[in-house]
Amino acid sequence: MNVSEPLHPDFQKILKQFQKRYGVDQGTNYFWAWINKLGLNPEKPYEQAREAFRWAEPHFQLIKSDTEAKWYKVEAAFPLSSMNLNVYTREELKTATKELRGKLVNLNHLGYKQASHLLDEVLIFDAEYEDDVAEVLLRVPNGAGSKLGLDIQKMIDEEDIVHVSIEADCVRGWGWSEEPEGWVCKGLHFTGLALLTKEVLPGIPLTRITPVEKIVENFMVMEDKSLKEKQEDSTFNKTIKPVDKSGRNGKSAAERLAKLNLEVSELKRLNRELQEMNAVLEKKLEIKEKDIHMWQTTVSELENQKEVLQGKLDTAEEFNTKMLADLNVATEKCTVKEKNLEKLTGQHKDLVAEMEKTKALLKEEQDAHYEAATENLQLTSMLTSRNNEILALKRDIEKLTCASNNEIESLNKTIHRLNEKVKKSRRIGRILVKA
Questions:
Q1: Contacts of 276 (CB under 8 A, 6+ apart)
Q2: What are residue 73's DSSP bridge partners?
Q3: pLDDT at residue 105 above 80?
Q4: What distance in Å separates the CA atoms of residue 136 and residue 189, rounded to the nearest whole number?
Q5: By CB neighbour count within 10 A (0-12 exposed, 13-18 middle, 19+ buried), where does 432 fall?
Q6: What letter would DSSP give residue 240?
Q7: What residues contact residue 283 under an 8 Å CB cut-off, 6+ apart?
Q8: 64, 96, 407, 420: most buried, per Cβ within 10 A?
């Protein structure tokens, strides 16, 4: 409890009395110490202020005698809209809370991702929906969490673990709600409980974990007082004294009667303890049967998943084989294209050499023509046709050069496109090999 919690007018009156007697600060501290010591709920009227949790009373004797574990009361869920906009209704929680008995507990919701974070030794011993709260009775054995290098009891007691978070399925889906705003879970089915460390924000900040020791001690004290009062009333109201046939006084008879009453009370207590132990063993047996059924279901699901994955693997291998065959065909085609490219490159070189030779011859002819023209002007008309032929030859050469360049450019594009296909085929091959 803390000072920020709302107080019922009855407890506001008591708080003022503490503050008047001891001062504001010290009186407030004394008030909350008194509240925590008696396990009272200051939000309720004074006569109803005892913490509920009455449904767990049959387990209190077992809890008090259990030296191998600590027990905790967990407020796990409330009928509200969580910070994740999940809405849990009162009717769904009433039905589903008891399903938490025997469910798995993990740390920070990591149980399904990492099996090592399952807290197998931690037991949800019992659960009940009371006063609009899904309450859980949690048993944490000594040394729980040691396989993770943790001490779960210490983490709870030192408030390194403050909140919990439910794990659940909505078997009939979700429906949007305006008031409260969020997605209403339909067919709520609890599958487990996660203990949250301080680094993980809870979906429901109202959740809390409190030791059961104080509740049990208060209950035991009240039970002892009630039993003593009943015994005193019973002794006081006895008006018929036993007949002393043996000659002994009435005091000895009363002592024998008290001794017999004590023995009867002890036998009743032993019988109650045996019944509680029997109930606990039956509950443990039920939990074990549920665990066996759950693991059998899990094994069956894993086998089905294995078959599905095996089918996918076979399909992937077939696809890989086909892609490798296609890659080989593409590689062969690429090899043929490369050979054709080498051939065309050789032809191109021959054409270039021939063109150079033709240019040289043309230059020689031009030189000879110009020399002869200076000496023999008369041969000009005779050489006109020859000049026309030379011009036609030049045009042919230019066309041939242009065509060769176009063909070279086309070949270069073809080479580039083939190289890209080769690279893509190789990448696909590597991906398929990895798969």
A1: 58, 59, 61, 62
A2: 137, 210
A3: yes
A4: 15
A5: middle
A6: P
A7: 101, 125, 126
A8: 96
Omega into 202 within 30° of 0, i.e. cis? no
Coil/strand/helix, residue 70: strand
pLDDT tens sequence across 194-246: 999 999 999 999 999 989 886 766 555 445 444 444 454 444 344 334 434 34
Tell me how far CA of residue 27 lies from CA of 24, 31, 32, 391, in angstroms. Answer: 5, 6, 9, 121
Proportion of the chain above pLDDT 90, given as a percent: 22
Measured from the Cβ of residue 297, the count of other Cβ atoms closer than 10 Å reads 10
CA dist 81 and 178 (Å) reads 10
**pLDDT score for 109:** 86
Amino acid present at 41:
N
DSSP 8-state code for residue 139: E
Architecture of domain 51-213: Alpha-Beta Barrel (3.20)
Q: How many CB atoms lie within 10 A of CB 163?
A: 22
Where in the chain are the domains? 1-49, 51-213, 314-434
Query: b/e map of 352-375 (b: 16 or more CB within 10 Å)?
Result: eeeeeeeeeeeeeeeeeeeeeeee
Select from 119, 102, 73 the least CA-distant residue to 282: 102
Count of helix runs (H) and strand runs (E) in the chain: 8, 10
- 430: Cα separation from own chain's centroid: 34
For residue 239, count CB atoms less than 10 angstroms from its CB and return exposed for 0-12, middle for 13-18, buried for 19 or more. Answer: exposed
For residues 273 and 33, what is the distance between their CA atoms, to the nearest angstrom? 33
- Ranking 12-21, 50-59, 338-347, 419-428 by mean pLDDT, the lowest is 50-59
pLDDT of residue 232: 47
User: In percent, how much of the chain has pLDDT > 70?
Assistant: 82
Q: How high is the pLDDT of residue 310?
A: 83
Cα–Cα distance between 418 and 331 in angstroms, integer? 10
Q: Which residue is it, tokens 């449904």?
A: 55
Can you tell me the distance from the alpha carbon of 78 to that of 87, in angstroms, rounded to the nearest whole number?
Answer: 9
- Across 403-420, b (16+ Cβ under 10 Å) vs e yields eeeeeeeebeeebeebee
